[in-house]
Amino acid sequence: MLHESALRLLRDDPLRTLYIPCWLSRGKAALKQRLADCVGFKPESLPYDDAFLDWLKLQRSEGRPLILCTASDRAIATAISEHLGVFDEVMASDGATNLAGARKADALESRFGRAGFDYAGNSRADLAVWRRARRAVVVNATPTVLKQAGDCCEVEQVFAAPASGWPAWRRVLRVHQWLKNLLVFVPLFAAHRLGDSALWSALALAFVAFSLCASSVYIVNDLLDLDSDRQHPRKRLRPFASGQVPAWKGVALAPLLLFASIALAWHVSPAFMAWLLAYFVLTCAYTLALKRVALLDCLALAALYTLRVIAGAAAADMVLSFWLLAFSGFLFLSLAFVKRYAELEVHVLGGRDMAPGRGYFTTDAPMVQALGIASGYAAVLVFALYVNSDAVRALYHSPEIVWGGVPVLLFWVSWMWMQAHRGHMHDDPLVFALRDKASVLAGAAFAAVLGVGTVGWPW
Question: Packing angle between helix 270-288 and helix 197-224, nearest 10 degrees?
Answer without folding.
Answer: 20
